[in-house]
């Protein structure tokens, strides 16, 4: 694919026909010319742009690539199913067998169902929780997808919030409450005022705080139990990365409902909403309707079956933890040695760059120039090799030197 030039660049062309220049806000390039405008191919732990530049990649499609780009086992499963068909007017057996496999792996998953994106699966959980409890209010901690960013002060993107959300009626916004991570005083006050009307707490882990999260999750479990509310986990990033069973396995605190997505199918579009069978029974009774033509699309289910099986049998989360720890430790040593005011904090499988925003931007730009693709959350995948990490650290060292100069 030839590289456009001048006013005909991919970025210019995209902005002419597409708001933001990408269908995913976080993928739109903002650090040109060092950052790639488009990626045309990935293999293992590396990606390639349309100019032929190669990058050691730690964005991993913003998290979904857990086994590596173009994993041959997952690709073979997709190709085999493609011969039999993609979508039908009745359920395919893969719907049942993939749900069985998922429920055998994830703590608290007594039943599971499929959609395509995290936002819609989280919206489904909110509706199910309201129907099951007969209550209207929802407490949200962290970013739960653009679709569900309804409260004043909610996370409209993973790293930003807003005092109000244009396009959301005030009457609806008043039923949603955004609370910061581990803000127990606000939660206690909120439940004191509205406890009898709160249906669910929906919590996404704060990446830098994951290693110490068990205490907060135990507090949320006790709080919801005491007030008759449900507890739901947003495991879009943490599921199949921090642990096979996400934060439920990592903390030992099991929720009533959970949503998984990134990592479950190595990049194929699939989300899972799961949990207690009695809670999900509102769907069986027809009290709540959650349905999608593409929920049972077979290529993603075939990919998910293969991906989950590999991750379970080969302890891929352990591999991600090992690789991530080496990269995290190496980068933090590098930042300290070079006097760059950054650190990589949190669980090794998904640590976050912490520091001044301008310094983070300079580091990302300088790293792109050296052929390393980082993101504010740094993701490894199982195809990264020790040589990849060593080379990435050498290149990141040059990036730090450039910043220091």
TrEMBL record:
Nucleus in keyword set: no
Keyword annotations of the record: Pyridoxal phosphate
Record's keyword annotation contains Transmembrane helix: no
A Pfam family reported for this protein in Swiss-Prot or TrEMBL: Aminotran_3
Record InterPro entries: Aminotrans_3, PyrdxlP-dep_Trfase, PyrdxlP-dep_Trfase_major, PyrdxlP-dep_Trfase_small
Entry superkingdom: Bacteria
Cofactors: pyridoxal 5'-phosphate
An example Gene Ontology molecular-function term: transaminase activity
Family classification: Belongs to the class-III pyridoxal-phosphate-dependent aminotransferase family.
Protein name: Glutamate-1-semialdehyde 2,1-aminomutase
Gene source species: Microbacterium kyungheense
């Amino acid at each position: 694919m030839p590289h456009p030039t001048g006013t005909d660049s991919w970025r210019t062309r995209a902005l002419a026909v597409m708001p933001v220049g990408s269908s995913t806000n976080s993928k739109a390039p903002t650090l040109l010319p060092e950052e790639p405008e488009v990626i045309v191919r990935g293999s293992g732990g590396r990606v390639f742009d349309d100019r032929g530049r190669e990058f050691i990649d730690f964005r991993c499609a913003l998290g979904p690539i857990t086994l590596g780009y173009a994993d041959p086992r997952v690709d073979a499963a997709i190709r085999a199913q493609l011969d039999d068909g993609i979508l039908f007017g009745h359920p395919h057996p893969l719907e049942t067998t993939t749900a069985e496999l998922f429920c055998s792996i994830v703590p608290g998953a007594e039943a599971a169902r499929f959609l395509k994106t995290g936002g819609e699966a989280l919206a489904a959980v909110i509706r199910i929780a309201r129907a099951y409890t007969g209550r209207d209010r929802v407490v949200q901690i962290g970013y739960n997808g653009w679709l569900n960013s309804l409260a004043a002060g909610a996370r409209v993107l993973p790293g930003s919030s807003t005092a109000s959300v244009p396009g959301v009626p005030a009457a609806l916004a008043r039923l949603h409450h955004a609370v910061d991570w581990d803000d127990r005083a606000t939660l206690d006050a909120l439940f004191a005022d509205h406890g009898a009307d709160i249906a669910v707490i929906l919590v996404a882990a704060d990446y830098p705080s994951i290693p110490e999260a068990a205490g907060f999750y135990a507090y949320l479990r006790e709080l919801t139990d005491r007030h008759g509310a449900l507890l739901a986990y947003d495991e879009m990033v943490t599921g199949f990365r921090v642990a096979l069973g996400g934060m439920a396995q990592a903390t030992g605190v099991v929720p009533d409902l959970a949503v998984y997505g990134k990592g479950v199918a190595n990049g194929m579009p699939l989300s899972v909403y799961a949990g207690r069978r009695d809670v999900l029974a509102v769907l069986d009774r027809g009290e709540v309707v959650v349905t999608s033509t593409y929920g049972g699309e077979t290529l993603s289910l075939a990919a998910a079956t293969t991906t989950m099986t590999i991750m379970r049998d080969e302890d891929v989360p352990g591999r991600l933890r090992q690789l991530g720890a080496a990269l995290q430790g190496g980068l933090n040593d590098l930042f300290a040695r070079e006097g760059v005011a950054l650190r990589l904090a949190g669980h090794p499988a998904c640590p976050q760059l912490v520091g001044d925003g301008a310094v983070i931007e300079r580091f990302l730009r300088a790293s792109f120039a050296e052929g390393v693709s980082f993101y504010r959350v740094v993701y490894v995948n199982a195809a990264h090799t020790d040589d990849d990490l060593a080379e990435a650290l050498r290149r990141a060292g040059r990036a730090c030197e450039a910043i220091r100069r």
